[in-house]
Structure formats: structure tokens, C-alpha cells
Amino acid sequence: MRYAPPSRLASFWHLLKSLVREPEPQLYRFCKSNFKTFPSDETIEEEAHDNISKLRYYPVQIGDIIEKRYQILGKLGYGLGSTVWLANETRARLPMVLKIFTNDAQNRAEFDVYKHLMSVRSKHPGRNHIRKALDNFTMKGPDGEHHCLVHEPMLENITAWNILFGLQDKSIADEFVKAEQEYPSARKEMQGYTVYASRALDAPSSKSIGLPLLSDFGAAVSGDIEHHRDVQPNVYKAPEVCLKAPWSYSIDIWNVGCLVCFTKFGVFMIAQAKSDDQIWDLFEDRHLFYGVDPKERAYMTRAHLAEMIALIGPPPPELLKAGKRTAEFFDEDGKIPAASMTPFANLAGGWRAEIPVPDRTCLEDLEENLEGSKKKAFLRFVRKMIQ
């Protein structure tokens, strides 16, 4: 058998590529005038986190083409370490979200976590509940490099600071573009950088809401080693965090228990499925724990621990022993001083804080939306996460 020489194969390949043209990118046109301008002395958006003259943020303009592929449609939000933009993937004409980080590696950990998740091959069902990074790249800015993550659009955070919901209806991006074209985003020009006002996606119908997804991995750490730093929003702090004991994966399980059971805005549970649509019910309209101190009228760890004791009993001895703050709340010998006698005066690990432990309660009394076997199964599930 005779083979064509490499040079001839290369020539044929280049000829083939020249004959197969990529489709022309689908671009939107945006108005360059008729927008509101903020006064120079008014601080807006990411400007509150940074003196723009430091050039930490990447200078994005609505209509820009990023990486020859993503056209910027408008700004969705901002944070200390990034700005977030709705974009159009010009080849497939699909809406995407670009999270562009500052050049000081403020959230480099999140970028690295997503790169790691993209490299992991797993069939675990929980994988479907982790927000995916569809692309990642690094761009050269005026004063350094900026990492960028590309995601599918999500419904605004409604249950916790790092839980989003998928969107099955991609047409909401069309409404976003229409609004930007007819009513251009207000903005402020300063030192060659444009600070835009953020624009929210329109709320979709309930049938367009997809699965809840874990997102925002800026504070994610490896669970293979113990950690000690203060983490988690106050009302979701696990006992280990409250007592400053070493923590690992278990505090995430505690978080899920608190979120799945009771949250400020409620948690969506699958009630039934019809075709490809997920129907979600709204559960308890409250937190599981509040931690509001009866004396200080604000969140305090002692009030949070007192609520935990009233609901699930005292922390186990091994946790008390490991906690650096244990002595602030519990007697060394497990006996409660007479001055702070409570209905739980015979607790193992005596309570010594200057506020009483609330009257005993239980999950059965707090859960009001389920009955019979469903209620028992649901509370059994929650107890495995918080006890």
C-alpha cells in the first residue's frame, strides 16, 4: 500500500479548511448614546470596592467580543473580586455568563476549583447539582492578567448565598437584549474605564426553573485536611465553627440540613415531575436557627448554641474537648452554676453562658407542611445531617 507524502496531506488539509467556512458570528448592535450618566462624585457598583485608578477590574464594554467568541450583552453584577456579564456565544447564539476576575488573584481559588471540577470524571448524581464551568481562559488587561469563567445563565440566588437555580427557558436573554437596546444601561466613565449599572434577568415562569445548583466556590477548600478559620453565614454556622473546633466535610452536611429544612425564603423540593419539567414546592418560610441574643438583640454565638441545644441537645464531649471557645459556654466539669440554672441544668457539658437555653423543642413541632410517612421520612433525612 502506498501512502501520500506528509506535505501532500498537509496541502489537502489546508485546502479542505479553506472550503469549509465557519458561520458568520451573530452579533447584536447596541446604542452608543441616549444613556443616563452618573455624576462624577457618585460612587456606583464596583467603584465602591476599589479606586478604579488601580486598574484591578478588566475594562469591559457592552458589545465587546471576548476571545473572538463571546459578545458582551450587559452587566449582571459585581463583587470585590470580579464582575459578571451576560454574553452571547456567537457561533451557537446561546446566552452565557462570563465571570471576569480582578488582576490581583482575589478569587483565584474559585478559578482553580472549577478547573479541578472540570477535570474530574464522575457519575455521582450530585454532579448534576454543581454549577459547571463551560469554558475558562485568561485575558491580558491594561495592568495584568484576568481569569475568566464561562457558565450557563442561572436564576438569581434565592435561598442562600451560593445556591442558584438552572434556567430551562433561554429566551429571557432576548428580553435582556431588547431592554439594553431600548434603554441602555446607565454608566459612568472614569480614567478610561466604564462602570455600568447592573441589569437583572427577568423572572422566568415556574416551569422554566431547573435544578438547584451549588455555585460560588471562592471560599472552597480541600476537605482532606482539617481547618480552623471562621466560615459560613451566621445562621448556617455548624457547631464546630461556633466552638472553633477543627472542621472538614461535616460542616457542609450541616449546611445542607439547615437549608433543606428551613431557610429564609424557603427551599424548593421536588413535588412531582411532568415530562421534562421539574415542579417545586415552597417549604418553611423561616430559618432553622437565628442566633439572636435576647440581651444584645443581635446575632451572637452563645444564642446560636443555645438554640441548637434546645432542638438537638448538647454537643458531644469530643466536640467540646476540641473547641477553642468551649470554656466560654460550657463548664469544665459539666456542671451548671446555680446562677444560670435552666430547664437543661442536668446537661452533660454544663451551660455557663449568661443567657438561658430556650425551652425544649423538636423538628416535628417546627415542620408544618408534611404529614404521616412523608413527614417522618423527611425529618429522618434532616436529622442525619444535623445530629
Summarize the structure.
The protein has 387 residues and is of the alpha+beta class. Helices cover 24% and strands 21% of the residues.
Describe the structure.
- The chain is built from 10 helices and 13 strands.
- It is an alpha+beta fold and 387 residues long.
- The strands form 4 sheets. A 6-stranded antiparallel sheet has the order 1-2-3-4-6-5. Strands 7-8-11 form a 3-stranded antiparallel sheet, with no helix packed on it. The protein has a two-stranded antiparallel ribbon with strand order 9-10.
- Strand 9 and strand 10 form a beta hairpin.
- Helix 5 runs antiparallel to helix 10.
- The longest helix has 15 residues.
- About 9% of the residues have low confidence.
Individual helix count: 10
In percent, how helical is the residue content?
10-25%
The shape, in one word, is elongated
Largest beta-sheet details = 6 strands, antiparallel
Structural class: alpha+beta
- What's the number of extended β-strand segments? 13
What is the H/E order? HEEEEHEEEEHEEEHHEEHHHHH
Strand content: 15-25%
Indicate the low-confidence ranges by residue numbers.
262-283, 334-346
Question: Taking Cα atoms only, what radius of gyration do you get, to the nearest Å?
Answer: 26 Å
What separation lies between the terminal Cα atoms?
Answer: 72 Å
What number is the mean pLDDT? 79
